[in-house]
Amino acid sequence: AYIMYTSGSTGTPKAVMIQHSGVVNFLTDMCRRFPMRHGDSFLSVTTMSFDISVLEIFLPLLSGATVILVGRELVHDSEGLVEAIIQSNPTIMQATPSLWRTLVSGLSGRMNGLRILVGGEALPDDLAVALNNVSPDVTNLYGPTETTIWSTVARVAADAPSSGIGRPIANTEVFVLDRFGGL
After folding, report:
1. What Å distances lie between residue 160 and 2, 119, 126, 155, 169, CA to CA?
2. What is the pTM for the complete model shown?
3. How many Å apart are CA 175 and CA 183, to the nearest integer?
4. What number of other Cβ atoms are within 10 A of residue 2's Cβ?
5. CA-to-CA separations, 26 to 21, 47, 69, 133, in angstroms, rounded
6. How many whole angstroms separate alpha carbon 169 and alpha carbon 150?
7. How confident is the model over 73-96, as pLDDT tens digits?
8. First-residue to last-residue Cα distance in the chain
């Protein structure tokens, strides 16, 4: 379906070919987990060169919802982005913990019904708590590019922010290995 370049944990860029079946499986699972309908909107803040943008573009389009594209210059202006989020009043938004950290104080108490998706980096406990103060619907997502964007999903509860990486999406298995690569 597409080729994505990633350095993963090695720091050396490499091409990863993502198959059509992987994208279909991923989007089918995401449509079930994060249902959208006409009248909903997904605020897209991710550059198209980052694989998580696939969710931001195709989830709403598959659901009859709206994609709100945010320009790169606005993503780098946290105050301007907060105002854009408030004015557009999206129903769902996905961002990395680093970006959410720059936005959370400006959004606290000002959003109504926003579903928050966070991934691409480890989610610190203090940020998980702060995001739950913005929205009661926070989900942590994890997955390397090679597995077609996200592999696992965990709801983040306000009283137990250390949700870990969660459970696998449909048709995906997760193995926890020890430091020697064994099960």
Report:
1. 37, 17, 11, 10, 21
2. 0.91
3. 7
4. 12
5. 8, 19, 21, 29
6. 8
7. 999 999 999 999 999 999 999 999
8. 32
* Spatial CB neighbours of 2, under 8 Å, sequence gap ≥ 6: 17, 18, 23
Q: Which residues pair with 138 in a beta bridge?
A: 116
Q: What one-character-per-residue DSSP string does 40-69 give?
A: -EEEE-S-TTSTTHHHHHHHHHHHT-EEEE
Alpha helix (H) residue ranges in the chain? 20-33, 53-63, 72-75, 78-88, 97-107, 125-134
Each residue of 112-139: pLDDT tens digit? Answer: 889 999 998 999 999 999 999 999 999 9
SS3 percent helix, strand, coil of the chain, rounded to 5, is 35, 20, 45
* Rama region for 93: left / alpha / beta (φ>0; ψ in -120 to 50; rest): beta
Q: Find tokens 């944990």 and name the residue.
A: 9
CA distance 35 to 65: 10
Q: What is the pLDDT of residues 2-26, one digit of tens each?
A: 777 776 667 777 888 888 899 999 9
Distance of CA 126 to the CA centre of its chain: 18
